[in-house]
Amino acid sequence: MKILHLIHKHQNRGAETFTCQLSNHQSKIGHEVKIVAVYNGEANLNWKDSIESLIGDENKFIDWKAWKKLSEYVNDFKPDIIQANSGDTLKYAVLSKITFGWKTPIIFRNASEVGQYLNSNSQKMFNYLLYRKVSGVASVSKKSKNDLIGHFSFLEKKTTIIPIGLEEKTVISRIKFDSSRRYNIVHVGGFSFEKNHEGLIRIFRKVVDQRKDIHLHLIGDGPLKSQIENFSNEFALNDYISFYGFVNNPLDYIKAADLLVLPSIIEGLPGVLLEAMYCKTPVIAYDVGGISEIVKSQTGTLMKKDDKEGFANAILEKIDHPDLTQLENAYNMVARNYMNKKLATKFLNFYKEVLE
């Protein structure tokens, strides 16, 4: 089978990372895989071949040159299936298909809750047009699937659930945090509004008010990073927070931490929670998106969205009362159900269903 994956851009974010991991497994199985980015980016992604770009313009709605370039890739590579992996990939795939008339089926990987982004009737109508042209949707969670179908009911029979996954590896942490801090908390995620770093700073201020032997490590980069650094300064947390930017080995930081926190306001099924569980690091997260499908009382601590006080109290509780049984349950769940080697086969089976 020939598979063409579309990604948003060369960037070290969850959708692009997972697409490359999935593509590597599909290639190992014996399929011919190509990855194309809609926009230019600078990150080096873990894919064995080059990732070409449509050189799309993020400020244009009508991007004729990029649509044409995608049609040329389709005509040259002749894929059996095209998978649009979140971001603007679906828009470019559908508008290229409509404009230039190619016939390859489009699969959309729904990695979030689309309803959170539909703020007007015009947006909903435009998305209606896009989804009418897809042959199948792979949603990362039940919540993502139900949200999508709630807005576009005609997709019900076209939609399946295939979660995000992890690579099998032996996790050996080479990171050692400052020993003067007895308790280390980590957050991994790009500095975007969805990740709610401002809310995290407010939560952490409440924790620091209760105890001082604690430190927050923020892993990631993004457009809001400098703003959050300033916000941290305003809360007088300079001595209690470290900003690392992008790192190549986030698992090492997760493994070295005593706790991973994720107070996001929008999520699909965040891989960082699975990574923490795989590292046997405790997790606390807001109940958004599909998080409740993996974070339960047996595997972690789930908090009501925007409950900053409760989140801070949960952190303090974890510090004093770690639950080792919970960590074993979480690890076993991930090892059993969320490894990429198995998920690659699920995607291939879904493609075959679509093509029949």
Automatic annotation (TrEMBL):
Keywords: Transferase. InterPro entries: Glyco_trans_1, Glyco_trans_4-like_N. It comes from the Bacteria. Residues 14-166 form the Glycosyltransferase subfamily 4-like N-terminal domain. Residues 181-322 form the Glycosyl transferase family domain. Pfam families: Glyco_transf_4, Glycos_transf_1. One of its GO terms (molecular function) is glycosyltransferase activity. This is Glycosyltransferase involved in cell wall biosynthesis. It comes from Christiangramia gaetbulicola. The lineage of its organism: Bacteria, Pseudomonadati, Bacteroidota, Flavobacteriia, Flavobacteriales.
